[in-house]
Amino acid sequence: MGDGDGWASCDAGHRHWGRYGAAGLLLYHPGDEPYILLQKRSRLSIGGGTWGLLGGARHSHEGPVEAALREASEESTLDPSLVRPHWLSREDHGGWSYETVIGSAASRLDVRPQSFETAGVAWVPASEVADQKLFPPFAESWRRLRRSLYRVVIVVDTANVMGSRADGWWRDRRGAAERLRDEVAAVDGFTGVPGAVAEICYPRIVMVAEGAARGMSGVPGAEVVDAPGSGDDTIASLAEPQAADERRVVVTADRELRARCESAGAMVTGPRWLLDAVDRPCPAS
């Protein structure tokens, strides 16, 4: 038992499990037909006999991703280190919330029940999820959540983003690029991602460095690619999605580059979106 285990009431007067809210894991394996990991709830649990997500009460010291992964590993043999989170979707009931962490696994892992709460665990094709006897709250949210079964790669036109700040970047281009890299890497979830359904995104970040900024190393949370020649050419080459469940977003204000990236299949947003993200804390915690 943790300090989050217990009943709580929302503003509508409904009782919910989780004194500090609850979190669940929507894990998928990508492909032409994605597979979803579902839990069959035991007869000793609320909604016994129905299928839903691994998850449960969030403790006071936990973030939603931490809570969802912990609960999933307590209720099944899932190794949380093999899960890559991509999105966080929040349902606020007023005074109580449920947060769904949407993530992927590189394979359909062998996952089995591990607690009295779990009667079974199965990988189900996404097209067949709605045909199951679903836990009612999950059934209500599945159609919306299904649209978030993808990951985002954000490609940053580093020189263009730096140039939109009047902070003296021209005096030390390499130092300014490194500061931007560190700021971007420190963002714990991005909001307002173009085309997103879920509220918070945990993307892969690729920063393209050119000119005097070349040679800086990547850090956890922000990769760096040196442009051997034109930065625009390198960015355009990185704009094309590399997998069926991947979408790429390029950050630039350059109109010609925008057109090239959109032709390659990427979405494009301006530097202000990224700079707002590094200046404003994410509401995920």
Description of the structure:
- The protein has 285 residues and is α/β, with parallel strands linked by helices.
- It has two domains: 140 residues, Nucleoside Triphosphate Pyrophosphohydrolase (Alpha-Beta Complex); 129 residues, 3-Layer(aba) Sandwich (Rossmann fold).
- The chain is built from seven helices and 16 strands.
- Strands 3, 4, 5, 6, 7, 8, 9, 11 and 12 form a nine-stranded mixed β-sheet that branches.
- The longest helix is centred in the middle third of the chain and has 13 residues.
- It is elongated and about 65 Å long.
- The model has no long low-confidence stretch (mean pLDDT 94).
List its salient traits.
five-stranded parallel β-sheet; 2 domains; 7 helices; 285 residues; alpha/beta; elongated; 16 strands; 24% helix; Rossmann fold; Nucleoside Triphosphate Pyrophosphohydrolase; nine-stranded mixed β-sheet
